[in-house]
Amino acid sequence: MGLLRTTMPPKVQLLAVLAFGVAMLLIENQIQNLEEARAKLEQTISKHEIAEVDHRHSQNIGRQFSTQAEKDDTVIIYNRVPKTASTSFTNIAYDLCGKNGFHVLHINTTKNNPVLSLQDQVRFVKNVTSWRTMKPGFYHGHVAYLDFSKYGIKGKPLYVNVVREPIERLVSYYYFLRYGDDYRPGLRRRKQGDKKTFDECVSSGGADCAPEKLWLQIPFFCGHHAECWKAGSQWALEQAKYNLVHEYLLVGVTEELEDFIRILEAALPEFFKGATQLYRTGKKSHLRKTTEKKPPTKETIAKLQQSNVWKIENEFYEFALEQFRFVRTHAVREKEGELEVLGQNFFYEKIYPKVN
C-alpha cells in the first residue's frame, strides 16, 4: 500500500480511499440488515412456538373440560321436609332429567323413617359416591342430613332444601293425614275418617297437634345425632343453622318457591335449565294441595306460639328465610315488575406471567 501511495497520483489515491469507505459502509449496512432480518426471523419463530404451545394448552384444557362434561360427577341431595311443597319441586326435576341429562332417584325409607341405621348410612354414602352410571344425579327423600365427610369421602354432594313456616307446615300435615291431597286422591290416609279440626285438636290437647309435632325441620337439618331429635334442643338449633349455612348450596322457603327455583336454574343450569318456565306453566308445578284444610284461629296459633318448641323452630325458619333473601338479593334484580337473574359480575385481569 505504501508503494501504491508513492506511485499513485493524489487524486487517484483519494478516489481509492473514498471507494474503500463506501464499500465498507455498504458491507456494514448489509450486515446490519442481515442482523435485523435474523432478529425478526427469531422473533417470528418464537411467536410461532408460543402460539403452538398455547394452542396445545388450549386443546388440552378443552379436552379436560370435555372429559369433565362427559363425566359430570355432580350429585344433588334434596332431603325434603314433609309438607313444604317438596312434591312440586321434585316433579320439576323428573320433568327435566331427560332433557338436561341427569338421573333422579327417590330415597324410599321404611315407614318414612328419616334416621338411617349406621350400616345404611355407610351403604348410602358408598352408593351415592360410587354409582357412576347414576351421575349426574338428583336424589330426593325424607332423610335427615348426612355428613359425607364423616365417612372419609372427599367429593361431597350438593345439598338443597326448602322450609316452611312451622305452624302452617303442621296444619297442612294434620289435614293431609286425614283427607289426603290432589296428588293421589284415591289413596287412603292413616287418619282418614277423623273429622276433628286442627283447632279442636289443639283445644283438647290432642297428640297429632301437640307442640312437639312442630319439631321436624330442625332435626332434618341437624342430622343423625341423638340430640337433633330432642324437641326443643338449643344444641340442635345451632347445629341446624350451621349445616344450613355451611353444608347446603341453597335453602328456599315454600312461600317463595319460584324464586328458589329461579336461583337454582341460574346456579346449576346443567340440572335446572328451563325449571322456572316449567314451574310457571307445567301441570305438575302445584301438586299436592291438601284437601279440606281449615286455617287455624288466632287463639290456636297463640296457644302453639307459647311453647318453647315453636319458638326454637320458628327461630330456625326465620334464620333460613333471612339467609334465602340475602342470597336472592345478590342473585336477582327487579325489572319492570319481574325478577331478573343477574349475569356474571366478575372477570379476571392482571394475569401473569405475560406472554409476548
Please characterize this protein's 3D structure:
The chain is of the alpha/beta class. The chain folds into 2 domains: 66 residues; 270 residues, P-loop containing nucleotide triphosphate hydrolases (Rossmann fold), CATH 3.40.50.300. The protein is built from 13 helices and 7 strands. The strands form 2 sheets. The chain has a 5-stranded parallel β-sheet with strand order 2-3-1-4-5. α8 runs parallel beside α13 and α9 packs antiparallel against α11. About 3% of the residues have low confidence.
Percent of residues in helices: 40-55%
In round numbers, the mean pLDDT is 86
- Strand percentage lies at 5-15%
Fourth-tier CATH superfamily name of the largest domain: P-loop containing nucleotide triphosphate hydrolases
Which series of helices and strands comes N to C? HHEHEHEEHHHHEHHHHHEE
Tally of extended strands? 7
Q: Could you name the CATH class of the largest domain?
A: Alpha Beta
Major beta-sheet overview? 5 strands, parallel
**Number of helical segments?**
13
Q: Provide the CATH topology of the largest domain.
A: Rossmann fold
Q: Report low-confidence residues grouped into runs of 5 or more.
A: 60-70
For the biggest β-sheet, the strand order reads: 2-3-1-4-5
Shape: elongated
First CA to last CA: what distance?
A: 53 Å
Radius of gyration: 36 Å
Overall SS class? alpha/beta
Q: Tell me the number of structural domains.
A: 2
CATH architecture of the largest domain: 3-Layer(aba) Sandwich
